[in-house]
């Protein structure tokens, strides 16, 4: 039995669990400070983003832990998709949209969060690839073993 879990991915998830509340507090505090000077559509966008990121991040981290530690392909694939599609584009939007009047502390925590997400996308992809290849090989070998068992004559 070969261990298919990724230690770098697991370490990244571990540190992300502790970084996310810090990121959330900084982002909400700065949003509270700059809220009066933002335009109405940016106010709506930022509040929606904070709700979406908060909910998605909890689900994403759970799927990452379960998928990586228990070597479950569907959960790890869900983690990879949630990282790649909603989370990474949202953080890049928060990082590079100058209409949001980005504070330097806010930019710093967004850069760290974007680095976590970028690393996790790559690490999860390679871990998924290795898991799928190993599971497919096991399936083929089991299937061939059963075929050979059916072809063998009964003893005695």
UniProtKB/TrEMBL annotation:
GO biological process: non-motile cilium assembly
Function: Transmembrane component of the tectonic-like complex, a complex localized at the transition zone of primary cilia and acting as a barrier that prevents diffusion of transmembrane proteins between the cilia and plasma membranes. Required for ciliogenesis and sonic hedgehog/SHH signaling.
Recorded GO CC terms: ciliary membrane; ciliary transition zone
Pfam families to which the protein is assigned, alphabetical: Transmemb_17 (PF09799)
Major localisation: membrane
InterPro entries xrefs: Uncharacterised_TM-17 (IPR019184)
Entry keyword set: Cell membrane, Cell projection, Cilium, Cilium biogenesis/degradation, Membrane, Transmembrane, Transmembrane helix
Subcellular location: Cell projection, Cilium membrane
Protein's membrane topology: Multi-pass membrane protein
UniProt-recorded name of the protein: TMM17 protein
Assembly and oligomerization: Part of the tectonic-like complex (also named B9 complex).
UniProt similarity note: Belongs to the TMEM17 family.
Bilayer-crossing regions: 13-32, 44-65, 77-96, 108-128
Entry superkingdom: Eukaryota
């Amino acid at each position: 039995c070969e261990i298919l879990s990724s230690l770098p991915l697991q370490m990244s998830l571990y540190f992300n669990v502790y970084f996310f509340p810090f990121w959330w507090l900084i982002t909400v505090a700065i949003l509270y400070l700059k809220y009066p000077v933002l335009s109405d559509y940016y106010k709506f966008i930022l509040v929606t983003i904070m709700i979406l990121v908060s909910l998605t991040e909890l689900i994403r981290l759970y799927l990452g832990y379960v998928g990586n530690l228990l070597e479950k392909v569907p959960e790890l694939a869900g983690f990879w998709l949630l990282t790649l599609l909603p989370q990474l584009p949202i953080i890049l939007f928060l990082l590079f949209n100058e209409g949001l009047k980005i504070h330097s502390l806010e930019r710093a925590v967004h850069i760290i969060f974007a680095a976590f997400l970028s690393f996790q996308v790559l690490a999860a992809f390679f871990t998924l690839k290795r898991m799928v290849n190993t599971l497919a090989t096991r399936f083929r070998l089991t299937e061939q073993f059963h075929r050979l068992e059916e072809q063998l004559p009964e003893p005695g």
